[in-house]
Amino acid sequence: MDDSGSELAARRKRLVLGMRRVELGLIGRIICASCDSWTGLRAAWRTQHAFRCEVCALLVLIPVGWWLGKNGVERALLIGSGLLVAVVELLNSAIETAVDRIGDDYHELSGRAKDIGSAAVLCSIIMAGMVWLLVLTPG
Questions:
Q1: What is the Cα–Cα distance from 47 to 38, expressed in whole angstroms?
Q2: For 14-52, how does the pLDDT look when each residue is reduced to its tens digit (9 = 90+)?
Q3: Fold of the domain spanning 48-139
């Protein structure tokens, strides 16, 4: 199997339509990437309880952050910190899925990878809380 960078890049640029290969242009690659992203979001929604909880929290936090922020910077900080938690949760879910794909047997490194991903989610939640506290605390 040839794993050279140019061959891999060429394979990523092709789309198989029936039996025909079609070279994708910039717009085609953007469309394919967007479809892959949408598929990932749907999979996370279906399989990850924590992601669903964070999305529900965002449905409240985004309008509240927009209302409480006094200017564009404050609104970006309040809303962006919440979105960052969801992004880190998606990355953690990807790590957990990849580790689970390897096998169900316990391995110290698999456990460590999952724990580190979980710690990243915790750090992002703490950071979001600090941002909200600092932005909304007077003076």
A1: 14
A2: 555 555 556 678 888 888 888 999 999 999 999 999 999
A3: Helix Hairpins (1.10.287)
